[in-house]
Design brief:
alpha/beta, Rossmann fold, Dihydrodipicolinate Reductase, domain 2, 2 domains, about 25% strand, globular
Length: about 325
């Protein structure tokens, strides 16, 4: 059993906690919030062992072995460093830190503390990603030529949502959420080595004032190329159904971007593949990896170094759109490198 404490009791902590119900034999949660009543409510709702009226109380508790940093990104670095200094293992929600300097500071602290830091990229662990990696490794479609990833939906945030404040969120909509899809595109075997962003003119109308769309073109280390279409302001079928494809020299994989179904066309008859509905978002697999890394000393799959690779690509993307793009006119500032 690993005893963990969630630092923050917002929406994402609820998401994690629902998935953790299946792992009660290896993970025991507790909850910390700056609102004591909220922490107690989360603990009661999700079967927590304890609740804390502030984050430091949880970090200081010797019974707690690890913390989950689940607060807005501008708080991630400070809480992660405090937890490592106290000898705790850390799972930090993604995007983990707004700048590469933050990653380097945490890397140094992790090495000093000799503790596990896992970046909460659940998409890395979901059945869709696992199955795609296996199909590419088995050469089902031959050498990859094109990758086309689509994540488009109209999901606007309310005016009082903290994500509307880029200081709290660390950046705009693509920085806060698109990084998950960039990781998926770059984690399938071939690695993305360069990326360039193209930004439609942002709309600042309505309650969600963020820049909400980005198209990214990228190149893989095996010479393949790809694109990622991201938007949270364009309507989609069934409010989120979208299709992505991998094109190889001997076949094509078409898949629903959320991971419900794929069609594999290689040698032979095309076939339907269902990656898996159990743990479809990968949270349980992510926590199993966290538990394994803590108990065995192994490097987690979604390591700090792997997340730094994603951040380097994000830096390239924002450097390509900010200097002369429409966001510069709108006053947008790219995350510092």
């Amino acid at each position: 059993m690993v005893r963990i404490a969630f630092l923050g009791c917002g929406f994402i902590t609820g998401v994690h906690s629902r998935h953790l119900k299946a792992l009660r034999g290896i993970i025991e949660p507790s909850y910390a919030s700056r609102d004591a009543a909220k922490a107690a409510a989360f603990s009661a709702r999700y079967g927590g062992a304890c609740s804390y009226s502030d984050y430091m109380a949880a970090i200081a508790d010797p019974k707690i072995e690890a913390v989950v940093v689940a607060v807005p990104p501008y708080l991630h670095q400070d809480l992660t460093l405090q937890a490592l200094a106290a000898g705790k293992h850390v799972l930090v929600e993604k995007p983990a830190f707004p700048s590469m300097e933050g990653y380097r500071a945490v890397l140094e602290a992790r090495n000093r503390a000799r503790r596990v830091v896992l970046i909460g990229e659940n998409d890395h662990y979901k059945p869709l990603a696992v199955r795609l990696r296996r199909l590419l490794a088995d050469g089902v479609i031959g050498d990859l030529v094109f990758g086309h990833f689509t994540t488009i939906a109209k999901r606007l945030k309310a005016a009082d949502d903290w994500r509307n404040d880029e200081k709290l969120a660390g950046g705009d909509a693509f920085f806060e959420e698109g990084i998950h899809w960039l990781h998926l595109a770059g984690s399938l075997g071939p690695r993305i080595v360069s990326a360039h962003g193209y930004r439609p003119t942002p709309s600042r109308e309505g309650p969600d004032t963020r820049a909400k769309s980005m198209m990214v073109a990228f190149e893989y280390d095996n010479g393949a190329v790809g694109s990622l279409y991201y938007s949270r302001e364009v309507p989609s079928l069934l409010r989120g159904l979208r299709l992505s494809k991998l094109f190889g020299r001997t076949g094509v994989i078409s898949f629903e971007s959320n991971g419900t179904i794929m069609v594999v066309r290689g040698r032979g008859v095309p076939r339907l593949v269902f990656p898996g509905f159990r743990d479809i978002r990968g949270y349980q697999a992510m926590y199993r990896d966290f538990h394994r890394a803590i108990r065995t000393g192994a490097v987690p799959e979604m390591s700090l170094e792997r997340a730094m690779d994603d951040q380097r690509l994000m830096d390239q993307i924002y450097a390509s759109v900010a200097p002369a793009g429409p966001l510069a006119v709108a006053g947008f500032r790219a995350p510092a490198r």
